[in-house]
Structures are given as structure tokens and as C-alpha cells.
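Supplementary Note 2. Why include the ligand at all?

Several targets in our set were suspected to adopt different conformations when bound, so apo predictions alone were not considered sufficient. For every target with a known small-molecule partner we therefore ran a joint prediction. The input for zinc ion is given below.
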Amino acid sequence: MKFSSSWLAEHIDGLNLAPAELGSLITIKTAECEGVEPHGAHFDHVVIARVLTSEPIPGTHLAVASVDTGRYGIKQVVCGAPNCRANLLTAYVPPGQLGVTNAKLRGVDSAGMLASSKELGISAEDEGIIEFAAGNPGDAIPGCSSDTIIEIDNKSLTHRPDLWGHHGMAREVSAITGRPLRPVAAELPSGPAPIAVTIADAKLCPRFSALRFENVTVQPSPLWLQQRLESVGLNPINNIVDVTNFVMADLAQPMHAYDAAKLNGGITVRPATDGESCPALNGTTYSLDPTVLVIADESGPVGIAGIIGGGPSAISASTTTILLEAANFHAASIRKTSTKLKLRTDASMRFEKSQDPANTVRALARAVALLEEVSPGIRLVGGVADVYYSLPPLAPIEFTLAWMQRKLGKADLTAAEVTAILTSLAFGVTEAAGQFTVTVPSWRATKDVSIKDDLVEEVGRMIGYGNLTPLPPLVPNTVPPLPPERAYLRGLRQLLTAQGYTEVYNYSFVNEAQAVELGLPIPDHVRVVNPIAQGQELLRTSLLPHIKRNINDNAREFESFRLFEIGKEIHDRGRELPEEIPHLAAVSFAKHGDGTASLFELKRLAGTIAVGCTLEPATAHAYEHPFRSAIVILRNEPIGRLFEFHPSAVETGRAAVLYLDLVKLQALRPETGKYRPLRRFPTSAFDLTVVAEPRELAGRVLHLIEPLAGPQALKVQYLYDYTSEKGRSMTYRITVGAADRTLTSDEVTATRAAIIAGLEATGLTVQS
Amino acid sequence: MIETLLSDLAAATQARIAAVTTADELETIRVEVLGRKGKLAEVSKDMGKLSPEQRGVVGKLLNAAKQSLEETLTTRQNAFAAAALAARLEREWLDLTVPAPGPGLGSLHPLTQIQAEIEDLFVSLGFTVLDGPEVETEFNNFDALNIPPDHPARDMQDTFWLSNGHLLRTHTSPVQVRGMKKLGPPLRMIAPGRVFRNEEVDASHEHTFYQLEGMMVDKDVSVAHLIYFMKTLLSAIFKRDVTVRLRPGYFPFVEPGFELDIQCLICNGTGCPVCKHSGWVELLPCGLVHPNVLRLGGIDPEEYSGFAFGLGLTRLVMMRYAIDDIRQLQGGDLRFLTQF
Ligand SMILES: [Zn+2]
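The joint prediction is reproduced in C-alpha cell form.
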């Protein structure tokens, strides 16, 4: 929202602050100032000039003019405007302003420029150089002056309907600076309502006020009005529309002017019916439905309430009677319609903030005076049509001084200070013995201020938060333990980096193609309904799609690398919140080699993270190497997988992946057991070599030996193997012992014999 | 004469020992002369033929010769051993400047690092660390935070809506609601985590970023407490004394609400491009918890009050490491990630 500092100054008696300082004060006390920019500085230098002579330059559309500029003397200027002619009063821009320099055009010297309204930044008019009916060479451009624009962040005005106009902001400035706010004229005509108004739903339209004028002249606004609108980013259109926009930019009340001759009968504010449409001012025809509120006459909609006026009843050069509307609409309804029609206007932006219903008549009163100035001879017809439904007034807010002191943490805050601040912001204050009763002005009561806590902000910001002394809270000093899950994840991350793995963060989104590539069923995913970019359609049910991308991306830069991610799989649970399950994906990649080193490195990592885990061959997924895929088992529970990516999934090299469910893993962590006394008697060990099929699993044989070895077996250890096409011989070392004695050689031999017999019974051969 | 024989043998052996060049040659001489079947042993065998007087004399001579030869031998043996050890050590020259084989140290993501640092800081101040889900209910993300449907504040946060009727949390503030219900008053909690905004990604905008929510509820918590706390906290984070200021900011779940600025750490408030010449850098939103939010969290606002704040971890990381492209943080590029 742009605020003109000279416009603000018009509302305040004796305001004497540099705009930059004003911007800072507003930032600290009210809303965030995003910038302070000079505007129209050239009006300090541009002057009215009289064209003395104007001679065409042969072969061009240009003319060379001699102009009397008063202040700068007689100047020769080359001008391309068709209306450049002798005796014309126009605007002269001296070199150094608006980028104008002393130049030579078609060999003719030109010292400055004659300018159009557009070039001067007054309006969009650029049909020719500006023409003045009166004035003397050397005069400043009437109604136009240099200004400074203070830009306030719209977001910080979300809760302040009153600050969407200059008058509201001036009230803040008045409270901040202590300079008095000038009253705004609010004289309304009396007389019969000039038009019948019906409101179908008072919730959607709490108030509709209107005036009717005749003998209207539609013409360009005076320059001061055009420049003022232009300076705050509004386009001058014509005197009537400009007045409505000026009042909106001043009082925050959007208005609309209809060509009364184009209206048919009385006005009804009602929901649109299905199939109705409204051709709007902007040239678009909107299809409506009953969620859209319209202003209608007896023939149909003549405007979309609070958003845009209708095209056919718009003010035109032939307009002679007008109906001027100032109404109030329900914020949420306007917001919904505006979103639905994808149409945000200066009006809808304001109505969305819950405007003050009492403001409609203030706006009309202000407009009357302005219309009389810009459309000489204009006459009111009757009085105000004003239909509204009185809402119960907001109950006064009560609080005590002590409460306010405690909330702010300022024990020396006085009742007088509180009263002065609230009064300066137009609150009604009565106070006795520290007990406050506060009434809220109508423009703050629509949503912004309703409870005592809202007043803490009013008092706090005007005192200035910098004037509060920081106070250490008086609370017991206990240090809570870090929750075990967090401590666990932190330890895990440390372990992984110590082992050489670097942490990556990936998005929670995947696209359909990524899910399909990894065989993740699309319907299992929670879907984003309104993605604005590609790749955001689904929430990930696996970390692997992005891990795969990480592998291929980094393989372009590195011969080998290790990385990991700890992130959440998100699984749809219908109407319930989805299940978010933290997982670990660790990758060891090498461009060269046969891949076994990476797989065994990750197996070792698995053993470090999930102590005591074992691997069982898995049925490989399509993206896994069909012969290099295993399920990680911990205490008989599958907790994840170890695999090498299928060569078709990686662009180059080999990538081994360890993928673990961290919820299962944490649940299965061993509890601290009791200490076992150290063995006092010597143990014996013997080796056995088992001969089997070439693809017999070492782990399976190990699991066969363990129970065969009996209770005296302390350890069964795989040592090495020799594998050929014919078969596989695997050597194991079995250590046996007893707690209370040394085993005899007969006992050891018997154990050995039992193992051999047991293995041979399963069809394996044991080498002696 | 046995004496002559002995002295000749001793002299000849001494000469041979002096002449050896290897430890093996020395060993050969030792076996030949001093061994069990060596020349000295042979001489002592012949001593049986001598008279007891002569035996005594020759015995002494024999021992003297043996001792002298052994000494010489040992000396030379030691010399050879010392030379051999020196030669071995010399051969074992090792270049310790070559890189160690095996993986180097990995690195933690900068967000993990800063989050851990801030968590530790808060834990030392008595705060509990809580987690919340990435997918939240509309109620927790908006309604419970005093943002009813159609509230314009919903426009401030472009939301990813989901097929299951829920949404991706737009801030960590829903954990306030969860925390109040879980802990009850008085409470001190923080909740770091991933949040989402539905916007286009460029060098300074991300749809996925990290926040840290903080909340303290107790009797008579005031704005002055909030200022003290934020100043202490930010000084610890930035490892220097920071100047903070509060100015009005609008967030429906706090009242009053503030934007907290810190005095620019680059120019110390004199103005520079980083702070857009204002001397201040907007850092975090905060405020006193709105009574409606306390009430929905099951806490009586007449009895308790509290403050809450939201720290942008992503922003903090970018400030600390002067990262100029936010996309790097979730790009998975090890050239970037291994720098931390
Ligand atoms: Zn700076």
C-alpha cells in the first residue's frame, strides 16, 4: 500500500517530519515500511511555457518551437506533438529533469522538452503535449508538486481495515507524533431516498448507502487529483471515477459510480442465480452462481458486490446522472468470490479486511464536496438511500492497570499513560482506581480489537517496545532430558559421519514417474491437490527415489562417495493423518570395482547400527540387483534391506544401499543385560569344512551348526570358503567349553561327531 | 706343547673373528672353535693326559682363551645385530603424507548442525524438544492457532492441500497446540522441523524449509520476559552480544504480535546492502500467545500467559554460511554438503 506523505500531512496539524523518519516511526509503532521513495521531484523544476512560434522541420513530423519559459528564458525546443502550436500554454521540462538533455535532433538544437501528461507522470494521457487554459510562463504546474511515497507492506496491514486509506494512517501518525488529526467533513444531505434499496442477506451486506446526482459533467479531473491518484498507483480515468478512487484511497471505503440512466428500477443486493452473468468494467463477462453476491437492478446484475462494477452502467462521456454507491460487504464472502473469479481489485482487497459499516456515509459525505469541485454544476437529487442492519455494539473491554503492567512487564506504567495512548487512537476510555473500561471505535471493532489482549498491543507499541526493560523470567531451572528418539537419531548421525557418510536432505515430494520407476504403487501415496510446480504431486512413501537421483547426480562428479539421509516415509491412512515413519538410507557408491566392497561395507554398517542383525536373501525388487538383495533381520523381525541398485537404475558404477526402518530398529534395540562372569576354565576349538552346492549360503550352514553344537558351544565362526563351479567348501571354527570344568577330549570329540552327523543328515558333506 | 697350541689357536681365531664380514661367518667360527665339538673342546679333551699340576695351569689358560674369544665374538655379534636392525629400520621408511586408505569423515547437513546447536541451547534453558508431523490437520495448522477458515492470514501462507483432506504444515506452530495438550502448564518447549509453502522455487525461495517453534507458558509471562529471552538466545546463537528490537507484526496466534529485528551484524546498524541500509535485519516473528490459542490448548488464559516465537533455521543457516542459493540445501550435491 502506497501512502503519499503530503496527503498524510494534509490530515495533520503541523506535522513536521522528514518522510524517512515518518517511515521509521510507522515501522516501529504500526506497520512495516518497505521503502520511502521520492515521487514527482521534477515538479520542482517543470514550468508552464508559452509556445511563441512553431515551424515544421521539413521531411519529418517534428516541429521546432520557440517557447517562453519564464524562469529559464526563451528556449528552442524540437517537439513531435501534433498539438504544438503558437500561443499554446504547455509544460516545459528543462535539461536535467526526467532524463531530458540538451540535444540535437535532425540537426536542430533542442534545449529541453515540451511534455505530455503521461511524460509528466500525471496520467496515462499521451495524445499530445499537455495544454493549460490559464497560467503564466514560469509558473509551476498547477496542483502538482513533488512528494515522497511511503510504501507499507500489505501483509502487515492484514488486520487493520482502517489503514487501507490515508486518513486511517494519518490517525496513527497523529497518535505517534502527538500532532492533532484534522476532522473530516461529514455533512450529508437530507431528503427522501433517491432510489429503493433492498438487501437480501444482512450478513453478506450489512450496509448499502447511495446518493444520486444530476447535471453531471464527465471530464478529466483537475491535475492535482490526477497526480494524487497516480502517486499512490491508481490510474486517473475521469472526474467521477477519480473521486470514488480518491475517497477509497483516503477513507479506505471502496465506492462505485453508476450511470443512473442505465439503471432500471431499484437496487437489490442479492446472491446471483445459477446461469446469471455479469459483463464487468474490465471487459470480461463473469459467469455467476449463488455463492456470488451481486448488485442488481430490475434487469439483472449491474455489478459484482465489493469486487467490480458492471460494464453497461459504467460512467461514460455521455453520462449526466449518476448513482454513487458506498456499501459494506462480508469479508469472507468477498474473499471467496475474489478467489473464485481470480479477480483481486482495490475494492476486494479492502473488503477482505472487514471494513467498517459506519464508514459508508462518511465516504459519501466526502464525495459530495469533491464532486462539486470536479464537476461544476452537479446537483444532488434527494437525500441518502441508506439501508443497514444495526449490529449489537461491541461490549466495552475491561482490564486493570495491574494486568496491563504484568502483560507488558512494565511495573511503572501509569493509568494516565494508558488513557492518553488509547484516547489518541480514538478509543473511549474511562478509568477509576486502575480499573479501565474501553470502547472500541467502529473502524477497529470489525475484527481487529475485541479483547483486552488486543489493547496490550495498542499500549505496548505506542510506548515503544524499546522502552521495556528486558526481564529474566522467574522460573525453576530444570533441565529436561533430551527425548530418547532425538538422542538416538543424533547418535546415529554421528556414527554415520564418523564412518564417512555425508548427510543429504531431500524433498518430501516425488513425482509420479519417480514412484513408477521404483515400483511404488501410485494409489498408496498421499497426493498434493494443488501443486504449483512439477515434481510435487505425491508425498514420498520411500526415500529411495531421491536417493537414486542423488546417486546419479553425484556420480557425475565423484569416482566414489558415501551419503545418507534420515527422513520420513509418509503412508496414506485415509482420513486419519498419514503415518510418518523415519527411515535411514545409506549409500556407498563406486564407479569402478565389482561392488562387493560397498555391499560388505554397508553390511558392517548395519551390524554397527543394528547390533546382532543378520541378512537373509530377498526376492529382489525390479530396481535391485537380482542376486544382490537381502532383508536385514533383527531379533527375527525384518527391519530393512541391503541391496545393490540394478544396473539399469544407475547411470554408471555400482551403488549399494542400506535402507532401514528406524522405528522398528529403535524398538528392537537390546536392553542393557547383566554382566557375565569371565570364564575360568580353558576352552577347546576345532575346525570343520562343509562341502555343498556352489550357491549354498554360508549363513544357512552356520545356523545349522549352532543348534547341533549343543549347549557347550560358545561360538560358531565362519572362517573362509573355497568356491568353484563344482561346489563350495566352507570352513567353520567351533569353540566349546564349560563354565565349571575343562572339557575332556572325549567330550569335544563327541560334540564334533554330533555336528558332522547332523550336517550329513541334511545332505551336506563334511570334510575330515 | 699344549700351551703353544692353545695360544696359537687363540691368536688365529682372534684374527679370523677380526676378518669376518657377516654374522653367518662369525657363527661358523663360533661353532668351529667354541662349539660343543669345537677346537677348544678338543683341547680340553686332551687335558686328561696331563698331570694335575699341568692340568691346573692349562685349565686356566683354556678358560682365559675361551673367555677372551667369547667376548670378542659377542662384541662382533652385537655389532652385526645392531647393523641389521639399523638396516631393517632404514628399509622401513614410510611416507606418512600419503592419504590414509578407507573412507574419510562424512559431514552432517548444516541444518542438522545448527538445529542441534540450538536444541542444546534451549535444553540448557529448561526447554523440552518436541516433534510434530509434516502432514497436519487443518485444525491444528490454522483453526487452533486462531486462523479460522476465510481468515485473510490463510492467504499469507500458500498451503499444499492433500488428497486425504489434510495439509502440509505451513509452520511449526501446530506443535504449540500439540505441546500444550501434551505438557500442560507451565511449559517450555521447542519444536524444530520441516515446513512447506506452495510457492515457486528460486535462489531465495523454497517450498520446503526449516523452522524452530518455541513456546513458554507460565504465570505472568510478559513482553519484557520475551525481549530478555530473545536477546539472550540470539546472543548465544550469534556468539556475540546482539541488539534486538520489537515492532508490531500481525500473526493471528499471538496478541500482541511482533516482528523481531536484530541490529545488522555486518554493519552494526550503520547501514549496508545486507540490511537494505536500515541497520536492522528482520529475524523472527514472536508475541504473547493469543488467549484463544491457550484456551484451545486446554490452558486458562486468565491464569497463564505465554510467549511464542518461530525461528527460521533455513534462514539462519544461510546467514551463518553466507549461502546465496537456498536450493543447495536440498539439492543433495556432495560438492556443497561436504563443506560443512
Ligand atoms: Zn547492515
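DSSP finds 18 helices and 38 strands in chain A. The pocket of zinc ion is lined by residues B 264, 266-267, 271-272, 274-275 (CB under 6 Å). Comparable summaries for the other entries are listed in the accompanying table.
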